[in-house]
Amino acid sequence: MRLSRYFLPVLKETPAEAQIVSHRLMLRAGMIKQASAGIYSWLPLGYKVLRNIEQIVHEEQIRAGHIPMLMPTLQSADLWRESGRYDDYGQEMLRITDRHGRDMLYGPTNEELITDIFRSHVGSYKDLPLTLYHIQWKFRDEIRPRFGVMRGREFLMKDGYNFDLTKEDALHAYNRHLVSYLRTYERMGLQAIPMRADSGPIGGDDTHEFLVLAETGESEVFYDSQITDLKFGDRAIDYDSVEQCQAVLEEFTSRYARTDETHDEAEFAKVPEERRRTARGIEVGQIFYFGTKYSDAMGATVADAEGNKVPVHMGSHGIGVSRLLGAIIEASHDDNGIIWPEGVTPFHCGIVNLKQGDDEADAACDALYNSLTAIGLEPLYDDRSERAGAKFATMDLIGLPWRITVGPRGLKNGVVELTSRRTGESEELPPEQAIARIA
Ligand code: ATP
Ligand code: MG
Ligand code: MG
Ligand code: MG
């Protein structure tokens, strides 16, 4: 993409309404624009990162054997009356009446809708296990929408639902989600720690939240510092293996790690004092096992091997896709702007032409652009007639992992300058070598 043809409305001033760094940087980098309280338009740069995050979530869910689909944003109130949550959910639910006077709502989550789909189409234990998920906009009329996309009213969530014959099978699905979430967050350059949590309006007994440690996080968390040494990495996992998934769950949840909702001082005191940590965290996901809560209420049963009708065991599992942009920026930025992890960056590198209009510099930039594109990388080429300083500031603000600077002086010696956004280190290299470094 050539910057002169792109839409990147960066702001020079720091927007006064933004209280935390990720919100400030998303506004300044021209990623989002508030449409109304807690509701945002995703401008091209923000949209690109959102799509990258979504793509990682899809890949990791599919790898775990979960099946993508899409349910609507607007739902009929009838299903929610069946589960009993139409009254329970309270003011966070946006209620709408259509022209025929029918009660509708903008879905804050999808347990009811998916349970209805399940009961309409699945009747036998032979069709289990089954995990369906979608990535769809949700609406929660949050009392205090704030921090930009971190606590929006309209937000993008991946929500998945498992259906199993037995509690044992459903707990395997729970563990599978835990593993897939660890992989998902790590691919985005994040450490998200599973912590024992409270189930809230979803209901159920077993639940973990995934928290990214950050001073601006809204949750207070308590943990054993050893937990931050754990890394899932690129280990191979067989998602069908009950033992393997269980082992990962044990490894990642055996140390003390809880949110304030479930924090227990007596238990915490058993952690050696020098390892006890109190901090703040951003909730980027949560997994639940809730048994037959919805299948009982809504009659979602299957015939077991003996032909008896039994309610299915379920769980639901959510990732805050749009919130993740904020969480990643909170975890990865400096005074000059965002530092995108490679896995989610909107462009792989920036090209800065120091002397736009100079035949040689323009030709070198074009050649570089074409070579990068030919190997499947996406550069953002700053081809505007701006000062070098302004071009560098824009690149630093939008946080691409690499910048290639091209100017007449370097070209005389056959080199360009390759700069890492994260370390700030620069190196002069022939263009081919710079490309090889990025690829
Ligand atoms: P919170 O405690 O932050 O209100 P929640 O526990 O109500 O979140 P869940 O029902 O667990 O949210 O939804 C799954 C995920 O969706 C959350 O872990 C979070 O990452 C994301 N999420 C929830 N509410 C919002 C929101 N208002 N804006 C952006 N993302 C959200
Ligand atoms: Mg909430
Ligand atoms: Mg929560
Ligand atoms: Mg939650």
Structure description:
It catalyses: tRNA(Pro) + L-proline + ATP = L-prolyl-tRNA(Pro) + AMP + diphosphate. It is an enzyme of class 6 (ligase). There is one protein chain. With 439 residues, the protein is α+β, with helices and mostly antiparallel strands. It is 33% helix and 28% strand. The chain is built from 14 helices and 23 strands. Strands 3, 7, 8, 9, 10, 11, 12, 13 and 16 form a nine-stranded mixed β-sheet that branches. The protein has a five-stranded mixed β-sheet with strand order 20-19-21-22-23, with helices on both faces. Strands 4-6-5 form a three-stranded antiparallel β-sheet. Helix 2 runs antiparallel to helix 6, helix 2 crosses helix 10 and helix 6 crosses helix 7. The protein starts with 20 loop residues before the first helix and ends with a helix. 42% of the residues are buried. The model has no long low-confidence stretch (mean pLDDT 96). The site of one magnesium ion has 3 residues, from strand 13.
Spans with pLDDT under 50 lasting ≥5 residues?
none
User: How far is the first residue's CA from the last residue's CA?
Assistant: 17 Å
State which percent range the strand residues make up.
Answer: 25-35%
Molecules bound to protein: adenosine-5'-triphosphate, magnesium ion
- Summing up helix and strand content along with how strands pair, one would put the structural category as alpha+beta
Radius of gyration in whole Å, from Cα?
A: 24 Å
Mind summarizing the main beta sheet? 9 strands, mixed
